[in-house]
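Hi all, posting the design record for the shared folder.

TITLE: backbone redesign
STEP: 1 of 1
STRUCTURE INPUT:
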């Protein structure tokens, strides 16, 4: 094999992500041929690589992606939090898996675990702008102003950053859905707090084409077949996801305009003595994501 960077070598073999490999190198926990490794070092299968004194297997394992419904109270990290339950504790699967991205301890919902470092890098890359959908319950009644501000973007003073425009739709008096392509730390909670709302519950229900379908809190399933392939196509940008449905205030305003236009058309038709039923609305097709399979 051609020599490759140590962090990519470890990522390809499902040992850890490239970022994690660099951290282990900085901490002096990786040795190559008996010598402490350095960032940028190139290796092959002929090199003896040890992490914490244990040899790294030369064979590549099957690349696995697990969809897990993380319950509230479980942390989505493999480092620190010694006395906390971690997402990796919930998945009884042979081999080492690590979480892709993060989901706050006080939030619940979909999170991926994998041994595929390249996939993890693509999903968490900020420039990827991959869709993640959440359902949120807040402490008081939703207003038009709140929904419009959430859609257009909110300036977060503590981060000195404006959130990107997103899709928002109202689900109830205090409940809404939001689709983000941005991944700021505790973004939704910060946005709501800036607008004078407190988040009571937050659940991630979709990442790209994968949903929580078939799962309950604490349950997981291995992604396979077309569902896994489509997810990887989106992650590596081999395919572009269909545009989301027009929702939220923008869709509501468009619907109001359509109703006004239809009413005017009916009035005109009446003055010409034409039947009322000739004034008809024209509806457009709405694209949908392919739902996740129910397999375990």
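Okay, here is what came back for every position:
SEQUENCE:
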């Amino acid at each position: 094999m051609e020599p490759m960077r140590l962090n990519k070598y470890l990522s390809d073999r499902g040992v850890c992500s490239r970022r994690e490999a660099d951290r282990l190198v900085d901490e002096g926990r990786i040795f190559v041929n008996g010598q402490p490794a350095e960032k940028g070092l190139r290796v092959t299968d002929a090199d003896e690589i040890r992490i914490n004194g244990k040899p790294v297997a030369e064979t590549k394992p099957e690349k696995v992606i697990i969809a897990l419904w993380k319950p509230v109270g479980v942390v989505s990290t493999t480092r620190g939090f010694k006395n906390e339950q971690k997402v990796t504790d919930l998945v009884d699967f042979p081999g080492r898996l690590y979480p892709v991205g993060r989901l706050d301890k006080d939030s619940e919902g979909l999170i991926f675990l994998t041994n595929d470092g390249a996939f993890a890098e693509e999903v968490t890359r900020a420039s990827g702008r991959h869709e993640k959908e959440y359902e949120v319950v807040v402490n008081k009644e939703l207003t038009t102003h709140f929904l419009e501000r959430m859609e257009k973007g909110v300036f977060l003073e503590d981060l000195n950053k404006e959130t990107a425009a997103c899709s928002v739709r109202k689900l109830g008096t205090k409940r809404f859905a939001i689709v983000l392509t941005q991944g700021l730390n505790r973004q939704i909670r910060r946005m709501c707090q800036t607008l004078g709302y407190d988040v009571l519950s937050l659940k991630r229900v979709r990442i790209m084409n994968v949903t929580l379908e078939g799962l309950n809190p604490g349950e997981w399933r291995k992604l396979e077949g077309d569902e896994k392939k489509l997810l990887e196509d989106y992650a590596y940008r081999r395919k572009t996801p269909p545009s989301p449905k027009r929702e939220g205030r923008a869709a509501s305003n468009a619907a109001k305009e359509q109703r006004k236009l239809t009413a005017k058309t009916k009035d005109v038709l009446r003055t010409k003595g034409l039947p009322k039923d000739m004034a008809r609305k024209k509806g457009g097709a709405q694209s949908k994501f392919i739902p996740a399979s129910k397999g375990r």
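COMMENT: The helical segments are 6-12, 18-26, 117-124, 144-152, 187-194, 225-235, 248-271.
Let me know if anyone wants the other runs.
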